[in-house]
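Q: Sequence in, structure out?
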Amino acid sequence: MFDRMCGDVPIPEPDPEHWQEQIKQLARDGYAAMVAHGDLARAALATIPSGPNAMRVSNAMLGIMLSGGLPPQVASWALDRIFLYIVADAYESSLYRARIGASEQDIAAYFDVFTEQLAAYYEALPADRYPHLRKHARDLVSGDGMQRFEFGLDMLIDGLARYVAR
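A: Exactly. Output:
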């Protein structure tokens, strides 16, 4: 089933000038496919998906990174880390959705209440023991799941640029 889901992920033709955005889009598309299929992301944890569709996506991501100038070892390890990030985030999302068992609107309302409660909890922590958590409580709970996914994706992919052969 996981491999069939991977067949839904569109594959771009490598464009060396835009490799970073292509990797980010491939990650977004993979994430969206996993989220659309409940907790199917779990099937990719602690395993190496090796069906033809999963390998098609892996091959494409590796090819895009190589075309952008990343050394083979760096691209290979990045492939592993990027997929782990996507799968873990998608699986965590499925766990929240299963726990809440509600519509998208209800899920958003749930997280509004949850993050407000969490921020209030952090703000009530003893300032002498947890000064940073207390002071930055609102920063810690800000943003929705997609904003945080995009932030993490930017950190991963933008950080790879330092490895591009000059």
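The radius of gyration is 18 Å.
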